[in-house]
Amino acid sequence: MENAADALKIAASVLIFVLALTISINAFSQARRVSNTILEYNDREYNYTYVEDNGGTTERLVGLESIVPSIYKAYKENYKIVFDDDGNTEVIDATRILGNDMSNGGIYRRKDATGNYVCVYSIDLQYEVLGTNELKEQFIMAILYGRRYSEFNEVSNNFRNNLSIYLNETGIYDKIINISNTLRTGLKESLGIYYQNETPSQDYTGGGTDDDISSIPDNNNVTKRVITYSIPN
């Protein structure tokens, strides 16, 4: 009898364990479905509204609530972000939006071949390789919030000494607030696509020729989304 009772207890324990495991799996599955639904809902605007299949662009007026997530997407989803006053982008100049002060202008600053500071008005993973996700996150926080970022001094010194990137004390966030208050409107957001090919000499600012680009096989081209922020006409 004792053996039978022990067997029943073991069987009941196994049954309870299997039931608990089934409930846990179902719960995790539901949580995953909910998470995917939320992510799909949040990204729906980017997936279905912005980029046209024919390579065209779409435009709208936006504020910080749209610009900040786009900057995060620059590194997470291989976007290119460009600030340009007139939106032409043949010659990129965002002096009015981000300033050209050699101590605090642009998104950040670099030194050119002559040792002079130059303001950078675009964010592009293809040409600004930061390595680890931690460095990317620090970079984004620093360019967005400047000295208001709690780790700004340490991060600024690290980027200056190791990557020759000079971060601004005034971040993009405050600069966009200032220009929006001046304009009394948001910035114009223009979206399009181009092919990011494997040729390292192509910087999409006039270097190379059409033959150089057309010689790259299609399967070696990567579609890249470009978001340009400019001052509305």
Structure description:
With 233 residues, the protein is an alpha+beta fold. It has seven helices and eight strands. It has helices at residues 2-50, 64-76, 95-98, 133-145, 152-163, 172-183, 210-214; strands spanning 58-62, 80-83, 108-111, 117-120, 122-124, 166-167, 187-196, 222-230. Strands 1-7-8-2-5 form a five-stranded mixed sheet, covered by helices on one side. The protein has a three-stranded antiparallel sheet with strand order 4-3-6. β3 (108-111) and β4 form a beta hairpin. The chain is elongated and about 90 Å long. The chain starts with a helix and ends with a strand.
Question: What's the arrangement of secondary structure elements?
Answer:
Layout: H1 2-50, E1 58-62, H2 64-76, E2 80-83, H3 95-98, E3 108-111, E4 117-120, E5 122-124, H4 133-145, H5 152-163, E6 166-167, H6 172-183, E7 187-196, H7 210-214, E8 222-230
Parallel strand pairs: 2-8
Antiparallel strand pairs: 1-7, 2-5, 3-4, 3-6, 7-8
Helix pairs in contact: 4-5
